[in-house]
Amino acid sequence: MLRPYVGPARVVVGFDGSDDSYRALAHGIGEALQREAELVLVHAVDDTVLNSAWGVVFDPDEIRDGAAAMLVKAVDDALAAGLPRHRVRTEVVLGNPAAALTRLSDRASLVVVGRRSAGSGEKAIAGSTAVGVVGASHCPVIVVSADDVVRPERSGVIGVAVDTAARGAVALEWALTECAHHGGRVVVLSVCRAPQGRWFSGGHPTPEQQQAAVDVTRNRMADMVSEITEDYPGVDVTLEVSYGSPLDILVGRTEELDLLAVEVHASFPTYSVGGLIRGLLSYGRCPVGVIRPRDSHGS
Q1: pTM for the predicted model, two decimal places
Q2: How far apart are CA 21 and CA 59, in angstroms?
């Protein structure tokens, strides 16, 4: 299970002035208001830049001053939204942005980051900061993008990707807790993956075989999900089982969700994440909440 943070509610937001980071700022402000939490706005000055040739061209103090001035505007946005000044603070840190946010996540309830950094260009590919944070964070991470669908009103629906091996159970419990505290409902999404290779005769499963696989998956999922949801009787939970490509189906569902919660099993020691997580971070159309269960290394 994810190691619980014991302390005052705290939302950490990575902010670098990019369009995605402004969306992260807005989302983080909303989370801090809802949780009655402290908001920590963080700008990391990448030391790989300062240690390169650019470190001779730019004065580090000027860079820090520029970052601090950028954060002043972010603070103004937080105050205008209704957060009291004593619950908003800023940090300018020197170092790799993903490493800095991961360090701060150790004493946070939630980290919010943009999908892409200011220098990532226009490609819809998750940036190294977002990927690095979700792979190593000590608390849940929500990744947002300026490309996310904007709705006049929230749907109140959190989707959770879970499979029959119970990958996603921790994310489901987190989503249930969120809905129990703040309202909303949960849709459990399980995808019966199309088989790879030609180990069976015929080349492709027939429609009858596909439906049979979906039915088996649904029965297994219903039993597993009911064991988790019985502790949350006040939360409306539905189960959807589909057949096909998990990435394609989950990305399609993000058009209608307020949040898609997934569980990441990052590989030690680099904390690299799999293709499904990268794909969802890159192409999802709603915020993606990533939960990393506590692993054997105690992080």
Answers
A1: 0.87
A2: 24
pLDDT band at 35 (very low <50, low <70, confident <90, very high): very high
Q: What string of DSSP letters covers the chain? A: -PPPP-SS-EEEEE--SSHHHHHHHHHHHHHHHHHT-EEEEEEEE-HHHHTSTHHHHS-HHHHHHHHHHHHHHHHHHHHHTT--GGGEEEEEEES-HHHHHHHHHTT-SEEEEESS-TTS-SS----HHHHHHHHH-SS-EEEE-TTS---SS---EEEEE--TT-TTHHHHHHHHHHHHHH--EEEEEEEEEPPPSS-STTSS--HHHHHHHHHHHHHHHHHHHHHHHTT-TTS-EEEEEEEE-HHHHHHHHTTT-SEEEEE--PBTTTTB--HHHHHHHHH-SS-EEEE----TT--
Q: pLDDT confidence of 197, banded at 50, 70, 90?
A: low
Note the pLDDT of residue 298: 35
Residue 225 CB: number of other CB atoms within 10 A?
22
Helix axes 60-80, 19-35, angle to 10 degrees: 50
Supply the pLDDT for residue 119. 46
Residues 6+ apart with CB under 8 A from 262: 160, 161, 168, 171, 276, 277, 280, 288, 289, 290, 291
Tell me: pLDDT of 228 over 50. Answer: yes
| Cα–Cα distance for residue pair 115/19, rounded to 1 Å | 10
Q: How far is CA 244 from CA 193, 241, 248, 262, in A?
A: 5, 10, 8, 18
**Phi/psi at 77 (nearest 5 deg)?**
-65, -40
For 42, the token pair is 């963080």
The yes-or-no verdict on residue 117 having pLDDT over 60 is no
